[in-house]
C-alpha cells in the first residue's frame, strides 16, 4: 500500500491502518479512500490495488515453495 499511496502523495498512517484490521473488504476499502482523500471509487481502487496484492502474494508463494525445497534437501534449478 505504501507505493500505491505514494503515487497520490500520501503516506500510510499506522493508527488508521490498525483500525482496519478485521474489517470486511468493502468497509476497509471505503475507509482507505475516505481517510486518505483518494479520488477513486471502490471499483477503481480495487482494480489499481489488485496487481500489487497479486505481486505480493506471488512473492510470498514463491518464497514458501523455495523454502520447502531447501528444507527437504532438494535443489532448485533456475
Structural write-up:
69% of the residues lie in helices and 0% in strands. With 78 residues, the chain is mainly α. The chain has a single domain (2-71), classed as DNA polymerase, domain 1 (Orthogonal Bundle). The chain is elongated.
Describe the structure using short key phrases.
single chain; 78 residues; mainly alpha; DNA polymerase, domain 1; elongated
Into which percent range does the helicity of residues fall? 55-70%
Shape: elongated
CATH class (first level) name: Mainly Alpha
The number of helical runs is 4
Count of folded domains = 1
Helix-strand sequence: HHHH
Q: Can you name the CATH architecture?
A: Orthogonal Bundle
Instruction: Report the biggest beta sheet as strand number plus sense, adding barrel if it closes.
Output: none
Extended strand count: 0
Strand content: under 5%
Unreliable parts: none
CATH topology: DNA polymerase, domain 1
Short description:
This protein has four helices and no strands. It is mainly α.
List the helices and strands and how they pair.
Blueprint: H1 2-6, H2 14-20, H3 25-36, H4 42-71
Amino acid at each position: 500500500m505504501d507505493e500505491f499511496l505514494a503515487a497520490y502523495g500520501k503516506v500510510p498512517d499506522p493508527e488508521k491502518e490498525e483500525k482496519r484490521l478485521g474489517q470486511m473488504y468493502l468497509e476497509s476499502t471505503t475507509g482507505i479512500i475516505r481517510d486518505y482523500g483518494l479520488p477513486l471509487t471502490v471499483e477503481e481502487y480495487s482494480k489499481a490495488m489488485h496487481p500489487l496484492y497479486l505481486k505480493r502474494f506471488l512473492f510470498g508463494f514463491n518464497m514458501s515453495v523455495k523454502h520447502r525445497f531447501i528444507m527437504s534437501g532438494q535443489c532448485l534449478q533456475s
